[in-house]
């Protein structure tokens, strides 16, 4: 808790509490903008969203999304504004939170800002800087899935793999006559490489059991 932070105080006192878990609380603010204005507040004090772990950010936005659904279903909202508040420009040092605001067609609220026309060079420069970071979206290190049913490939013992003491002795090796068992093996029909229906079923069951 940060002393003097309005939202840390809300987390501690929990006024007008709607929901709480170990990551967030959802409350009705003391001065709501509309009937159906709720705030989703991170329990930990973070000035910026960048300081929050990805899994916690996902949970906070899930709580905001669920709150918006509750406003639609229970207050018959025509729409919602979901506003994430982050950064040092927030009052009293900042504390990451999300405002979820129920909207009606005739509520007379105006969140439309006047568009600003940027020079082409400035726009391209900003776009390039942002895109460099955005290119990393969705690129996560994936762990390779090992197929435990796949038999390891046999290593061929080519000339390059022959031990030094055996190198050059290939010509001296005598050919052994084929054993009786070997001849009988030659007469056996080759097994189809296609797995049987039962094998397929067993394989699928094994894979499903491995799924988390």
Explain this structure.
- The protein is of the alpha+beta class.
- It has a domain of 98 residues: HIT-like (HIT family, subunit A).
- The chain has five helices and five strands, in the order H-E-E-E-H-E-E-H-H-H.
- The chain has a five-stranded antiparallel beta sheet, covered by helices on one side.
- Strand 1 and strand 2 form a beta hairpin.
- The protein is globular and about 50 Å long.
- The protein starts with 5 loop residues before the first helix and ends with a helix.
One letter per element, helices H and strands E, the order comes to HEEEHEEHHH
Assigned CATH superfamily of the domain at 6-103:
HIT-like
Strand percent estimate: 5-15%
Give the terminus-to-terminus CA distance. Answer: 36 Å
The major β-sheet equals: 5 strands, antiparallel
Characteristic key phrases:
five-stranded antiparallel sheet, 212 residues, 5 helices, 5 strands, HIT family, subunit A, globular
Strand and helix map with partners:
Blueprint lengths: L5 H8 L3 E4 L3 E4 L9 E6 L11 H22 L3 E7 L11 E7 L16 H15 L45 H8 L9 H14 L2
Antiparallel strand pairs: 1-2, 2-3, 3-5, 4-5
């Amino acid at each position: 808790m940060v002393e003097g932070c309005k939202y840390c105080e809300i987390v501690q006192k929990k006024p007008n509490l709607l929901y709480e878990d170990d990551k967030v609380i959802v409350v009705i603010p003391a001065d709501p903008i509309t009937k159906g204005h709720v705030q989703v507040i991170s329990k930990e004090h973070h000035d910026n969203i960048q300081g929050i772990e990805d899994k916690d950010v996902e949970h906070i936005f899930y709580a905001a999304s669920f709150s918006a659904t509750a406003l639609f279903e229970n207050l018959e909202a025509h729409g919602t504004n979901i506003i994430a508040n982050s950064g040092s420009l927030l009052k009293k040092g900042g504390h990451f939170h999300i405002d979820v605001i129920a909207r009606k067609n005739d509520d007379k609220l105006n969140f439309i800002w006047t568009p600003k026309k940027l020079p082409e060079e400035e726009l391209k420069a900003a776009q390039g800087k942002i895109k460099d970071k955005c290119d990393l979206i969705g690129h996560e290190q994936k762990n390779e899935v090992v197929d435990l049913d796949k038999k390891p490939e046999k290593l061929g013992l080519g000339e390059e793999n022959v031990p030094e003491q055996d190198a050059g002795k290939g010509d001296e090796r005598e050919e052994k006559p084929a054993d009786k068992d070997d001849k009988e093996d030659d007469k056996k029909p080759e097994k189809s490489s296609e797995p049987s229906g039962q094998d397929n079923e067993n394989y699928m069951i094994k894979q499903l059991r491995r799924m988390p």
